[in-house]
Specification:
- By secondary structure, this protein is an alpha/beta fold.
- The protein has helices at about 1-20, 25, 40-50, 85-100, 160-175, 205-215, 225-235, 255-290; strands at about 30-40, 55-60, 65-70, 75-80, 100-110, 120-130, 135, 140, 180, 185, 190-200, 220, 240-245.
- It has one domain (about 35-290): 3-Layer(aba) Sandwich (Rossmann fold).
- It has a 5-stranded mixed β-barrel, surrounded by 5 helices.
- The chain starts with a helix and ends with a helix.
Length: about 290
């Protein structure tokens, strides 16, 4: 009897130790059949919300998440809010609660590359926080942040998941975006790989735009992408940032963003939906192959 009690006690103690060392949350794998799509504000997400079939809504800590099917794939669509803090908070929340296989940010941006016009798209091959670093007498030196997970210095430029970028490039070659009417006639939107930089300021300054182009090689500037990228990198979730140009980050930016947000948001969303369709097809082929 005493031996039985002793063995039971030992087994219970071992079980408690195992549970403490391996909590259920840490052991739970990512849901690779689920894609999360973020946008900073509702205008960036209108087309994506409309594309959901059998949509459902869940509210976590006051943040609204819409779930459903898009192009045959399970997706979560969510407004992150404007700025790096809002974007980082919502990204961490969606990773913890939904464990998506990947996160894609879709939205608008100011064009810094002089060859870009409203409606053109930049697929972020790199992204960086242009307002994080050291301000010296010589000016701003951009640094990488230290990871909250490893306490190691992240690189200044973060690069997206290679598989997602390859899918984006394939979609960019295949997708048929509508021509854009201009004062000089119609033009077809460009889709390029480029550098997208992020900061907690709306850039409407030719001097600042030129500085970002010179120091960071930036093609576009926005307010969320690098924050999403940092959280995803630190928590091990593949990510991709897609941005369509709404303005020139210049003296006319505030007027142009009102004129071209709908066009830019639509083009970005259409490219993202084609990427999602690829993800759905890829997942289906993998399932058949098992």
């Amino acid at each position: 009897m005493r031996k039985t009690i002793y063995l039971t006690t030992v087994l219970l103690a071992v079980g408690v130790c195992i549970f403490q060392l391996c909590p259920a949350d840490a052991a739970e794998p990512a849901a690779t059949q689920l894609t999360c799509i973020l946008g900073a504000f509702d205008d960036e997400l209108t087309l994506l919300y409309q594309a959901l079939t059998d949509p459902k809504e869940e509210v976590l800590h006051g943040i609204h998440f819409a779930s459903g099917k898009m192009k045959g794939r399970s997706v979560i669509v969510c407004r992150s809010g404007i700025g790096k803090v809002n974007a980082a908070m919502v990204t961490a929340l969606v990773i913890e609660h939904y464990r998506p296989g990947e996160i894609i940010f879709s939205g608008i941006a100011g064009g810094i590359n002089p060859d870009l016009r409203p409606g053109d798209i930049v697929m972020a091959a790199k992204t960086a926080q242009h307002d994080f670093g050291t301000l010296t007498i010589e000016g701003m030196r951009v640094d990488g942040t230290k990871s909250a997970v490893t306490w190691q210095r992240n690189p200044v430029f973060l690069e997206p998941d290679a598989r997602l970028m390859a899918l984006a490039e394939a979609s960019g070659k295949r997708i048929k975006l509508a021509d854009i009417e201009t004062g000089k006639g119609k033009r077809h939107p460009k889709i390029i790989k480029g550098i997208v930089v992020t900061g907690d300021v709306f850039v409407a300054s030719p001097a600042k735009a030129a500085e970002l182009r010179k120091t960071l090689g930036a093609d576009a500037v926005e307010m969320e992408g690098a924050a999403v990228a940092q959280v995803c990198r630190d928590l091990g979730v593949p990510w991709l940032v897609i941005r369509s140009i709404s303005d020139g980050a210049d003296a006319n930016a505030l007027q142009d963003i009102d004129s071209f947000t709908a066009l830019a948001a639509k083009n970005s969303a259409e490219l993202v939906m084609d990427i999602v369709a690829h993800l759905a097809g890829q997942a289906a082929r993998e399932t058949i192959g098992k």
